[in-house]
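Morning F.,

Quick status update on the modeling queue. The single chain you submitted on Monday has been processed. Sequence for confirmation:
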Amino acid sequence: MNKYELCVVLSVKLEDEQRAAALEKVQNYITRFGGTVTNVDEWGKRKLAYEIQKMKEGFYYFIQFDADAACPGELEQRLRIQEPVIRYLCVKQEA
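Structure tokens below.
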């Protein structure tokens, strides 16, 4: 099992319950592909470095999880097509 960190930026146009549902869906993807979520760090609303889809702000979440090498690829395929996710980045943490 490798340690990974996933940064997800959600749309600022979402209501609180929609944002919670989108975050829950991301966590469910991680567990579905054999990973275990170890920590979720919510940074809240932050200014984006540049405008994305006519938005200047987004909600940032950092999710740390343990998984095998196939999980991040499957996870990124699902995140790419989700409407509320405007950006994401998954990196492997050093041991």
